[in-house]
Design brief:
heterodimer, A: alpha/beta, 9-stranded mixed β-sheet, 3-stranded antiparallel β-sheet, B: alpha/beta, Aminopeptidase, N-terminal domain of TfIIb, 2 domains, N-acyl-aromatic-L-amino acid amidohydrolase (chain B), metal-binding (chain B)
């Protein structure tokens, strides 16, 4: 990311690098190192970073055809565009129905999960007659909104998803170092009070990032749950619509020159996945998520806590030493991916104040 | 003056069927059937129970159906239509199930067929059937409603009636001499929730307990059951050209199955923010509010009338 940074930020980053290399020391040197670390953090928060303007944004729904809030948010935005034209939103917004065939059939996908088709390998391999529909469509979307990794790529993709898990509103991004995305997350956390708003980072290099929003320069997914697939709930739709409107609002304010104050953003970093207990021969599930874990996304899971209750009544417990935070608990689409839930670590990300770079 | 309630004598129930996976993505029933099949009968049960996975192909693909909704294939017309290799899979399967558990309307049919279902609607546990005077089904409902101090205690139990003559009755449960769908929600399709599985397991167990007690000559006292009789369905507001829905069930109505809906109450909230209200003249009880599988059937919710049905005491005619 190219930006003009204040001298404080450059020094701050240098301090952090130095800190991590002194971690292995002990005693007084460590004490000094920790003091420097917090000095740097404070400096980052006080620093003002100038970032390039965000000219174009895309709102994508129906990447999974049965996750209906996004389908209807895009439908509603298209209706507003037909009615009001350019005046519909204060900034230019492109709306996209990502997987129209899957939407028509109200299925997650036709041949292949489209939201796994945006890694460099898939986007750069040639298309043939036998390519799955979703791979063809991924190439189309990469041409429309990308190309991924190039300067022509759209500035921000906001990809809309639903989950059967009780995750409230979760903003998902693949890196911890994108300050635009993190500022938008911070803004949503402040403005949306009726639903928990959390940030999830996958910590994946961009070429390996396989989801649609990785095509843009600053993309993220808006995941809202719980909602059954194939169902649209008014309350969930409203939350998602509000999140999109606030994202547009932030970009408009940022583009108009407003300074967004830095600070700490609490985030969860993906660590690993846990599968259901399965029959070794048939591979069918032998247990469901335990009632004491069901719907408790982002709680702290400690050793000895129940994980699964078998259909014959036995409890399976969490045996690991390290307490972690589960999420995507009992997501319907993950049964076939052999995931009962993901586990993550909570962390604090420090972001500087930002303002749009003036030409 | 003491008046004895009218008593009904019924033949004992010798054959019972428990069916799951009639819709392949309604998973509590699928796992309950798998669990029951694992523990096969050791021959000591007082009643013969046949456990069936109704739609194995749909279960394997975790879809509601492969070609056509199996639970609409049990009308007399469909059951007696000629089948060929090109017939829809579910039509062939419905005739197989009719041969196994029926034939529907004959003396060979199973005495009771319990068909297990899940719904995305907040219905609690419902027994859904075609008769409002089947004393067996009504007594089983009363028995489930009376249980306390169990896991199921917080799950409401209701009796829902579709007033359709047997020939036109289209669902699997109509194959047995007595039958009902045991519907439990809310649960997303393709998901199994532990508490929903437990509630269903307990519901089936209580049903089996009642049957065993009945067969051994227990007298079940009469009483009354509230019966919800389906009156009509309401569809979503749709775009006149594209037929795409333009509103979702209103937040005031969502999850409020079996709460009385009055004329003027909010029903839908459009995606552009307008409230649409119930325009009917009669206050009715909504159920199956926002069932995922019903969007394609043009049903946002169903409406029912409630009435109290008095049921006689019953005892089996056991040959002693």
């Amino acid at each position: 990311m190219s930006c003009h940074t204040s001298p404080y930020v450059s020094k701050g980053l240098l301090c952090l690098v130095q800190f991590h290399s002194v971690r292995l020391l002990g005693g007084k040197q460590l004490e000094e190192g920790v003091k420097q670390h917090y000095f740097c953090i404070e400096k980052i928060k006080m620093a003002l970073v100038f970032l390039p303007a965000l000219a174009r944004m895309a709102v994508c729904g129906g990447t999974h055809g049965n996750e209906l809030s996004g389908v209807y948010v895009v439908q509603e935005m298209e209706r507003q565009w037909k009615e009001k034209g350019e005046c519909a939103w204060p900034i230019p917004v492109t709306t996209v129905l990502s997987n129209p065939r899957a939407v028509k059939e109200c299925r997650r996908y036709i041949e292949k999960d489209m939201n796994r088709c945006f890694n460099r390998a898939t986007l750069s391999s040639p298309i043939t007659d036998s390519s799955p529909y979703e791979v063809l469509r991924a190439h189309e979307l990469n041409n429309l909104l990308g190309p991924k990794g190039s300067t022509d790529a759209i500035d921000l993709i906001c990809d809309l998803h639903n989950t059967t898990a009780n995750m409230g509103l979760t903003l998902i991004h693949y890196t911890t170092s994108d300050w635009v995305t993190l500022h938008i997350c911070k803004y949503l956390q402040t403005k949306l009070t009726k639903v928990p708003v959390r940030v999830l980072v996958l910590d994946v290099p961009i070429s390996d990032a396989y989801s649609l929003e990785s095509v843009s320069k600053h993309g993220f997914s808006i995941e809202v749950g719980p909602q059954p697939h194939g169902v649209v709930r008014a309350d969930i739709y409203t939350i998602m619509k509000e999140a999109v409107d606030l994202t547009i609002d932030w970009i408009h304010k940022f583009s108009s020159g407003m300074v967004f104050e830095g600070g700490d953003v609490e985030a969860f970093r993906f660590i690993k996945s846990v599968d259901y207990p399965r029959d070794p021969e048939t591979r069918t599930l032998t247990a469901a998520i335990h009632p004491q874990l069901q719907d408790r996304d982002f709680c702290l899971l400690k050793r000895g806590d129940p994980l699964f209750l078998s259909f014959s009544g036995e409890t399976v417990k969490y045996e690991e030493e390290e307490p972690l935070h589960p999420f995507f608990i009992n997501e319907a689409a993950y049964y076939e991916k052999e995931i009962a839930f993901h586990l993550g670590k909570k962390m604090m990300l420090t972001i500087p104040s930002v303002q749009v770079q003036k030409d | 003056m003491f008046v004895e309630k009218k008593r009904q004598k019924k033949k004992e129930m010798s054959r019972v069927a428990v069916c799951g996976g009639t819709h392949g993505n309604e998973l509590a029933g699928v796992y309950l059937v798998r669990e029951r099949l694992k523990r096969r009968a050791d021959g000591t049960e007082p009643v013969s129970v046949v456990t069936v996975m109704s739609n194995p192909r749909a279960v394997q693909l975790c879809v509601r159906y492969v070609e056509t909704d199996l639970n609409r294939c049990f009308t007399r017309a469909t059951l007696s239509a000629p089948v060929s290799e090109t017939s829809p899979y579910e039509m062939i399967r419905s005739q197989e199930l009719n041969a196994l558990l029926g034939p529907k309307g004959s003396a060979q049919a199973v005495d009771l067929l319990c068909d297990l279902h899940n719904t995305t609607a907040n219905t609690g546990l419902c027994l859904i059937t075609y008769s409002d005077c089947d004393w067996i089904c009504l007594h089983i409902c009363k028995h489930l409603q009376a249980r306390t101090n169990t896991k199921m205690a917080s799950t409401p139990v209701r009796y829902v009636h579709f007033d359709i003559p047997l020939n036109e009755a289209y669902s699997l449960d109509s194959v047995g001499k007595h039958g009902f769908a045991m519907e439990i929600g809310p649960q997303p399709h393709s998901v199994v929730r532990s508490v929903i599985f437990s509630a269903m397991q307990e519901g089936v167990q209580l049903m089996m307990d009642w049957i065993c007690q009945f067969n051994s000559g227990t007298l079940f006292e009469g009483g009354w059951v509230d019966v919800y009789t389906m009156v009509k369905n309401i569809d979503y507001p749709r775009d006149s050209e594209t037929h795409v829905i333009t509103a979702a069930v209103h937040p005031n109505l969502q999850d409020r199955d079996f709460c009385l809906l009055h004329p003027g109450d909010p029903m839908f909230l459009s995606f552009s923010g307008e409230t649409l209200r119930y325009k009917g003249k009669e206050a009715l009880y909504p159920f199956f509010i926002n069932e995922g599988a019903y969007y394609e059937k043009g049903i946002a919710l169903s409406l029912a009338r409630k009435r109290r049905v008095e049921i006689p005491s019953v005892r089996s005619e056991t040959l002693r």
